[in-house]
Design goal:
The chain has 1045 residues and is mainly beta. 8% of the residues lie in helices and 43% in strands. The strands form 21 sheets. Strands 3, 4, 6, 7 and 8 form a five-stranded antiparallel beta sheet that branches. Strands 25, 26, 28, 29 and 30 form a five-stranded antiparallel beta sheet that branches. Strands 47, 48, 50, 51 and 52 form a five-stranded antiparallel beta sheet that branches. This is Receptor-type tyrosine-protein phosphatase F.
Amino acid sequence: MSFMASMLLFLDGYMQENDYCDQKENKERKLSEVPSQPPTAIKLSASSSTSINASWQLPPIFTRHGRNITGFKLFYKKKGSGGSATTLTISSGSTLSRLITGLDKYTKYGFQVLAFTSDGDGPKSPVEVKRTLEDAPSQPPSNFTVTANSSTGVTASWQMPPPDSRNGIIIGFRLSYKSKDISGSGTILPINNESTLNKVVNGLYKYTEYEFQVLAFTAIGDGPNSSVAVVRTKEDVVVSSQPPSGFDLTATTSTSITASWQLPPEDSRNGIVTGYKLFYKKKGSLGPVGMQPINNQATRTQEVTRLDKNTEYKFQILAFSSVGDGPNSTVIFKKKKEAAPSGTPSQFIVTVDSSTSITFSWQLPLEDSRHGIITGYKLFFKEKDSGLATSLTIENGNTSTRVDKLDEFTEYGFQVLAFTSAGNGPNTSTVFAKSMEDAPSAPISLSSADVPSSNFQGPRLALTWSKPANPNGIIRGYTLFYSHGGGAPKIISKIDKDTLNYTVDVLAGVIYQFHVRAVSIKPGPNGTITVATKEYAPSAPMSLSSVDVPPSNLHGPRITLTWSKPANPNGFIKGYTLFYSHGGGAPKIIPGIEKDALNYTVDVQGGVIYQFHVRAVTIVPGPNRTKTVMSKEYEPIRGPEGISSSAVNSKKINITWVGLPREVAYGFIVNYEVRISLLENCSHSQSTYPSTINTTSTYILVTGLYLCAKYEVSVRGDTAAGPGPYSIPVIVQTIGNPIIEDLPKRTITVIGELAVLTCEVSGDSEASVTWTKEGLTSIPRAQFKKNGKILIIQDVALGDSGVYECKTLNIFGVSRRATTLIVAVPPSIVKEFSPSLVICEKKTPCFLSCQATRNFPFNYTWTKDGQVPTSHNIKLMNNSIIVTPRDAQNYGEYVCHVTNGYGSTEYKITLFVPSDNQDGDGTQSILLVSVIALSCIVVVLIITNGVFIWQRRRAVPNRRVLSKEEVDFDGVRPSPDQQLADQQVSETTLYMELKPRSLNEQSQDPTEYQSLQKEPSNPGYHNIVFQKGNAGRHNEEIYEEISQS
């Protein structure tokens, strides 16, 4: 050994010694960190025949060395078995039990347990042994054999089941048996002794197979049965009463036949079949029978060779035993194996049934060409010139068939062959036949195209289509159906077979259903298309005519137009549009006339040429139907307006007016007629002027008029139909003094209201206006407007009463007019003349008086107890009442009611009966009679005086006459309104009140007015005249002075 080798050996030994020391030190250190004792209180309990539950407690705490037990290891194995134990690791220090499953039944096991920490395992516990619970055996008895003792007895024997499969204490056995050919459960013989391991069974059937089984059982239950042991009782007489069963023949080749069979039925066998004998010979042959022995019971087939081809043989078989032969089987016949036919079926006939079916019939091939049994036929067919044929197999000896679902009107080629079990024979020659015609399929690609209307036709629709995909015959033509709106369809038949289009007249804007079908021997289904036809402009409306409609109070001239619907609506007529114009002006358009309204009335001017155009509208408007109409002329509906005048000089006036527009002239104005009437003439000069003037213009110059005169002028227009009405008259005036208009002679205003005095001035030159009251120019409470022409007094008081004069001045002179302002107030009672208490004796007339005073007439009425007194002893006399009391009802309170147009008042007078009415002496009675008589005289005098005064008033004339014409105080002839007001004074529909005037009272009339009086102003009465029945209204008054008689 070299030096280096020695050094290496030394180093290796040194390192191993160091490793051993380290391992020993580590082991000692670790032993102090693992449990030093095993777990305690180990308990084992068998849970089942295959499981045991183990439980334990932790090692004592002082043996844990302060370490936590992190788990346990459980070791177990079969008692007495070699090898290592199975280990179960429990990785939880708190798990103190474990169920161990999968153990062998009724087997003892040894168990140990240890605790471990993270540093290692502690020591194992002592071995504890526990057996699993008993169970039924898991295997049958072993070495089970059955031996036939005789023809009716059998001995069965067995051994105990293997020890590891007994699963407990075997306490007995059960032997079961039954005849092999019997189903269901057999006979069971219990053997209640574990030491009995055989059993003799007698009383069985002879030469019969039996099935035997045996099982062992414990106190828990039975184990499994053993395998079936079959034994046959011994032979008694070897005789078979029946031949072999299932005898059959098969032609193996054309020269050999194989026979097959089975044993005779079991119940017919009384021994063991040792072989068979097979006999055969040709059918109908008189020669010897051939026999082939089969000396083997297990051989069940035999091939007989060297037979004649296509020759029928008969066969029989029997079974034999050592004793002798059994009976022969029944004779069966068999031919040699078939070959494919060498000839075709004969008399192949093809008959066309319909457009989709053809019937075929044939006969068997010739007998010498069949070479076997014809078991069926195969029919082949295909369309002519087509590549792939369809085959149809016909079996069960049928020699005819029918093929359906062929294509219509299609030529097919047909062949048929016969076949045997050996194969197919040859095909017949091809026979061609064509299926019948049938209805074609629907035309395809049906489409449409709109054809616009023209001057020669309305809208049309061009339909096109393609030929049917399956004509199914000869297409002879096409039929077209079409309809709309559910109506009856229109039919167009016999469209040429090569014409694949058709044009039909349609209504525009309508949904049509078109159906086209092809026709062969019969019509096919429809090709359908739904088409909404296109709308076009309609043709012009027909028969446009007009009728003149005369003017009325509600409208002017009109024309009613009527028309008929277009000949070609070319769509859905939505309405009509009317255009009309005249004189080259812009047309007036009336759209949206209802589709069913075939007339329209329009306002027109008379005597004008109109162009009327009417057109129908669908989705677009159509052309116009035009008519030129001259409207009829009528008389104008009114006279001209805007009449005005301007003075050229004192006797010439230029009169102008606005010409009548055609809208009211109702025609062409050919002439204007001006009518002039004299109303007033303030001069005595002579003049001549025409009363009517005709002109074609809208102005005239009138000459020869009176100076300072008023005329009424009206104008009317004439058309060819005649003159119209005159215009509203207007007043024109020649040059002169200014004229005051619309100022009444009297104005009545209720106290507290607004008083308005208006002084309108007319004339040829502008005039100034001034006002005076009672001759004074200063009117403190008056306000003036419109250059002084309007005088206004607000909140009229009694002091505003008086005579107001309007004075106007122009270059030709001065004019004046006065009006008296009267402030109206309600009546009041003059209590000095109206006693409120009257004492009256019974049956004595008593006078009750109610005296009211104001400047306006009033009415008196009396009531008592709310009723008008109507008794015959009461007399009503205007403001007085005479009462002759008869009883207490006539005494009491009487009420006097006084009313005028501006208010009312009442006054109560009480009628008393004297307290000494019944006890007075004669002197008082005489005095009372005297007072009554005196009162009656006074009443009579008052009434007489009143009648006298009334008669004097009626005698004074109410008019002042200057020459033959009345003149106003300014020397101007009164207007007709003023004359009318003056006339009202003497009419019977007026009443008057006489009011005394003091002697020193001065006249309230203007000085100009006083200067016109023929007699000096003397004290007298004011006569105030009112219109009867106009209470509450401002009434005009006429003031006249009546001289005292």
